[in-house]
Amino acid sequence: MVIDLGAKGVVEVQLTSSGEKWGRGPRRDIHSSNKARVDSPAWHLVEALATLVSPDGNDPAIEGFAAKARPLSPAEKKMIADAAQRLSEAEAKKAMGVEHWIHDVSWQEALEMLMSRPTVNIEGLVGGYTGPGGKTILPGKAVAKLDFRLVPDMKADEALAALKAHLAKRGFGDIEVHMSGGYDPNSTPSDAPLIRTQQVVYRRGGIDPVMLPRSAGSWPGYVFTGEPLHLAAGHFGLGHGSGAHAPDEYYVIESSNPKVQGMDGAVRSYVDYLYALGSMS
Fold it and tell me: Looking at the structure, do residues 38 and 156 belong to the same domain, yes or no?
C-alpha cells in the first residue's frame, strides 16, 4: 500500500496540422503520387512533434516549459530511497511489460524520475488511411494527442502558453492547439492530520504503508491544496485493482483472499478513516 503526498498536474492537448490552415499541402486527401510536388501536413506535424523533446524522445525541449519545476528535496529523496527498498522493481516491470528504464537507470533513480520529471507524451497519432492494406493518399490533415505531466511549481496555463510560443517560434504557428483538459499539480505535507490518519488506519489493518512524495499520475487535488483553500488532500482506501486506463483495468468486488479487501471492505475502510480523522481533529 502506498500513500502519495500529492500528484503531478496534467495538460491534455490536440495538435492539428492541415493543408487548409498551413497554406501548403492539400486541403483534402489526394493521390500520394503528388508527394513529388506537394507538401505534406502529416510530415509537417511529425517535424513539429520532434522539436518538443530531445532526440531520444525522453526530455522535454519546449522553451520555458519546465523552468519552474521544483527539484526533489533531501527529505523527498530519502522517502524515495526508503520506498525503493520496499517496492519490487521486478513486479513493477512485469506489470507494465517493460524490461528497461530510460538510460537503464537504477530502481531508485527510476522512482526519482517518476516523482520529479515533467513529461511530454504522445497519446496517439491519426492521419490519412489506417485501415487494412494500403491506400495511396497524401492526407490533407494529421492529428496528434499529447499529454504533459507537471510537477510543483509548474502551472497548466503556463505550460500551454509555452507550447504555443515554442511552435510559433519554430515555424509551426499554423498548427492548431486545442487544450481538452488539465490542471495544476498538488502537494500535501507528510505531517498533515489527513495523512497521519491514513497511516493509523492502514496499520490497524495490518498494513505498513510506503510513503512517496507524489503520484506520477494526476487528479485535481489542486482544488483543495491551492488558492484559496490551502487544505490537505489525498487518496485513501483498502481493496485491490490494477491496469489503469487499459482495456483489462479491474477492481476486486468480492475477494477470496483474506488478505485482500473487496468492495465491502473498501467501503468499511472509509468509515474507519472518517471516524479516526474525527477523533484526531
Answer: yes
